[in-house]
Write a structure and sequence with these properties.
Layout (H helix, E strand, L loop, with lengths): L9 H13 L4 E3 L2 E3 L35 E7 L9 E4 L7 E8 L8 E7 L2 E9 L5 E6 L3 H15 L3 E3 L2 E3 L18 H11 L2 H16 L5 H14 L23 H13 L1 H10 L13
Parallel strand pairs: 1-9, 2-10, 5-7
Antiparallel strand pairs: 3-4, 3-8, 6-7
Helix pairs in contact: 1-2, 3-4, 3-7, 4-5
């Protein structure tokens, strides 16, 4: 069972499978069924821009999130001029990544790296890197969380030496015949919110948005019930947000509408609440010290 935990990593998943391995389970005869019922299958928010979807800050929001549904490509110069640069992908994505990046020896020429999804089947990186340049990296979002999850599970099964005589299958129905062999708990909510604020982490904001909708209405989390849940809370607290539009959790949506007056009012309400003030202020980045303001 996956739950939309935005902090789940390959290391966490490997720890789970290692626990199963210690129970002397060396082979799985049949399929691995993944319950992905917690969120709906609309992975991108309403009003998200199509040309941002390849970047990790706009990674798809699904029940299965591993490593932020993102991978990092590392590029470093070749020792030979005008030769193809070296390239390494941290982990296999659901789509192949090709590149045509050459090593430039002319210090006067400015180099840059770009990437795009040329069609639904692969990513393509282009550009150049200066011969004396330091290693560079580009973060690339997975396109299909389900395929990405299957790839990672199969990879980790091989690493822990558990055989699989079957497939990894997604199934939204509950099984009554099950035994809990291992589990992983996410970080506590306060720590997750702190990371979200410090690092301006869109993935966390969006998964919490959907999770709020799921927990409020006891149905798969979606952009619509996430919106409805937030509106319900704001109305219950008698906050003047009836004419605002909150279509996602991070602000990526171009459909979000909120006035400066409403934002100031909300900040004042937070400041007047000891409980909320301590949680929120602790998570805010400090200029010149940490988070997104570390280099200010």
């Amino acid at each position: 069972n996956f739950s939309g935990d935005p902090t789940l990593t390959s290391y966490d998943l490997k720890s789970i499978l290692q626990k199963i391995k210690k129970d002397k389970i060396d082979n799985i005869d049949g399929n691995i069924y993944i319950n992905n019922k917690d969120f709906d299958n609309q992975n991108y928010g309403p009003g998200w821009m199509w040309d941002e979807l390849d970047d990790c800050y706009a990674a798809p929001i699904a029940t299965t999130i591993i490593d932020g549904n993102c991978a990092v490509a590392h590029i470093w110069p070749n020792t030979k001029d005008n030769y193809q640069a070296h390239f390494k992908l941290d982990d296999k994505l659901d789509q192949p990544v090709y590149h045509n990046i050459y090593t430039n020896s002319d210090p006067k020429q400015k180099c840059s790296l770009t990437f795009k999804r040329n069609n639904p089947n692969y990513y393509f990186l282009t550009g150049c890197i200066n011969k004396n340049s330091a290693n560079q990296s580009i973060k690339i979002a997975a396109h299909d969380p389900s395929s990405n999850t299957i790839i990672k599970i199969k990879k980790i099964l091989k690493e822990v030496q558990i055989g699989l005589n079957g497939n990894v299958v997604f199934n939204q129905t509950k099984s009554n015949d099950k035994k809990n062999l291992a589990k992983h708990k996410s970080q506590n909510l306060e720590k997750i919110v702190t990371t979200m604020l410090k690092e301006s982490d869109n993935l966390i904001a969006e998964s919490l948005f959907k999770k709020t909708g799921q927990m409020t209405f006891n149905e798969p989390g979606s952009w619509q019930n996430g919106h409805d849940a937030i509106s319900y809370v704001l109305t219950k607290e008698k906050l003047p947000f009836s004419d605002s539009q909150l279509q996602d959790g991070s602000g990526l949506s171009r459909y979000n509408l909120m006035s400066a007056k409403q934002i100031i009012y909300l900040l004042k309400q937070i400041n007047n609440s000891k409980k909320h003030r301590e949680t929120i202020t602790k998570g805010l980045p400090l200029a010149g010290i940490d988070g997104t303001l570390a280099w200010v």
